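Q: Convert this sequence to structure tokens.
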Amino acid sequence: MTPPVRTYTGGDLQCNGYLVVGVGGECVAIDAPEGFAEWIQRSLPPGERLTHLLLTHQHFDHTADAALLQRTTGCAIHAAFDCDSSLSLAEHAAMWSIPRPEAFSVERPLGKTNSVANWAGLDWRVLPLPGHSTDGMAYYLPEQGILFSGDSLFAGSIGRTDLPGGNLDELLKQLREKLFSSLPPKTRVYPGHGSYTTLGEELINNPYIA
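A:
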């Protein structure tokens, strides 16, 4: 059975945050854009609680509410590396008068190799996807056919690679090897910005992939 996926979009860059309902009322959030913590407080019905926050990368628009979520819910935060201001693009945020994200604590950094995990009673595959950023990650629910791609893959496009830590060749290589050559075309993709898509649609319509 596919778990419900609830979507929030907020912050100056209209970043997506997702909430996945797991087993026994436990929930997993993916990324933490500005305003996400308040939205989760309003959205969680009695008996549901946020237990895990998965970060696709640490850019400021994806981590704006990470510390607040951790403080208010006690959720464990999972990311490729420990919290690091050099990964947040805080200097770019400052140029746009966007506050620097508050520091948070990462539980056992996931690193650069594929791995598996069970969060909220759901079986996840953790897929490092550097290229948009050095710490890019995707999170895949194989039983449900759902992928959270962060800023690595969008509907009709891919993440920009002209920011610090970006590498176009690396991103395309990772997308080919870890997504398009390994996962079913019907996999539904929830990106960091914009609307959802499927891997099959991107194989046909995405100019960077097709």
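The CA atoms of residues 67 and 104 lie 5 Å apart.
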